[in-house]
Amino acid sequence: MNTLYDSEAFSVVHMQQDVPHAHADSAVQGVHALVRHGFEIVDKRSGREVYLDGSWAEVFHAQIQEWQRNTPTQEEVEDTLDSYTGLAQHPVLIH
User: Fold this and answer.
1) What residues make up the domain containing 79?
2) Residue 56: what pLDDT?
3) Residue 48 and residue 89 in contact, taking contact as beta carbons nearer than 8 Å
4) What's the number of domains the chain is made of?
5) Is the N or C terminus of the chain more exposed, i.e. has fewer CB atoms within 10 Å?
6) How far is CA 65 from the centre of its chain?
């Protein structure tokens, strides 16, 4: 879990988990075949969060890579994050 962004309005956390590949051969156990990842975006203003995984996570990851190439302003980042707040249906209970 890595915090990617934290401001007064938003927090973005990248969650990445290695999933071990199940093999009958014990010599091959522990081999990681799939990396699952997602992004949690917390809208601190509303107290709601959204977890992006699958294709949503891939789209968001592409956005992050674009930000790494062309450093955005804080306003540009927050405008993008704000576009995801319509998906935020889960209240933040513990954070």
Assistant:
1) 2-91
2) 92
3) yes
4) 1
5) N
6) 13
